[in-house]
Design goal:
Strand order of the largest sheet: 6-7-15-10-11
Strand content: 35-45%
CATH architecture of the largest domain: Sandwich
Structural class: alpha+beta
Helix content: 25-40%
Oligomer: single chain
Number of helices: 2
Largest sheet: 5 strands, antiparallel
Length: about 260
């Protein structure tokens, strides 16, 4: 004898089928919504990450840029910033805008927008740890024998402790010859009419020959000078690249370039 399915049982099966179809529909809708949201969120996350890295790159660029012209940065940073630059990567070309506030030792801010993402990064930095003393600019002074003359260049150590200078490279807009080099009252280099490069990009190196390094204390130092062979050779634009370290063993060295004009 065959089994008969009652009317009530058929009704329950139909209801279960409808509920199952409805649940599958809801699950499908949720999964579809999640996929759409993921498709929207992933590009936003990538753009935000790219904007952050681009803004951080702006901080690095601005620090190097300021350090390449410490004379201008120390006296007139507003002539260097703000600036906008592009960053090319395999994934695309993005840009950052950097600004600077509060003079030497202030805050660099870098902002970038990439697609849907916008990020801003700020950093308190002092790119120019050694600067020319703005209140006492370089000048030509008396001294030396015969036609020799001294060019004085008071420096300021902006760092919080001693810096150890061990080499200075020189270039000049016109010909010149160097005989002596003093930092403070310390005789650091001596020579006889050594020609100074006239190409700022290829200065003449003067590694210290009389001391291993000169200790530049935090604050200012006076009396630093070059002794030039002939009086007419003092005039012109001077370019001075200073090599120094924060350790007496001269590890982790760094350098910066200063420039000044002697009438």
């Amino acid at each position: 004898m065959g089994m008969k399915i009652g009317r009530n049982e058929r009704g329950m099966s139909l209801i279960a089928l409808v509920v199952t179809i409805s649940l599958l529909g809801v699950i499908g809708f949720i999964m579809s919504s999640l996929m759409v949201r993921q498709q929207e969120t992933t590009p936003r996350f990538l753009d935000s990450t790219r904007a952050l890295y681009t803004a951080q790159a702006g901080i690095e660029w601005a620090t190097r840029y300021a350090k390449s012209d410490c004379t201008t940065f120390a006296t007139n940073p507003s002539s260097l910033f703000p600036q906008t630059r592009s960053l090319s990567t395999p994934a695309g070309t993005w840009s950052f805008t950097v600004s600077y506030s509060s003079g030497s030792g202030g805050t660099i801010t870098s902002a970038s927008t990439v697609g849907y993402g916008s990020r801003s990064v700020s950093s308190t930095v002092n790119p120019c740890e050694i600067i020319l003393n703005p209140s006492s600019p370089p000048y030509k002074g008396t001294g030396g024998s015969g036609e020799q003359k001294k060019v004085y260049f008071p420096l300021i150590n902006n760092y919080t402790s001693n810096l150890y200078v061990y080499r200075i490279d020189l270039a000049k807009s016109s010909s010149g010859r160097l005989n002596e080099f003093y930092l403070g009252s310390t005789h650091v280099w001596t020579g006889s009419s050594v020609n100074i490069s006239t190409a700022p990009g290829s200065p003449t190196p003067f590694p210290f020959s009389l001391v291993s390094y000169y200790t530049l204390p935090s604050g200012s130092t006076t009396g630093s000078y070059l002794e030039v062979q002939a009086t007419p050779e003092t005039g012109g634009t001077w370019y001075m690249t200073i090599y120094y370290s924060k350790q007496t063993d001269l590890s982790d060295p760094t350098s910066l370039t200063l420039s000044f004009v002697i009438p």
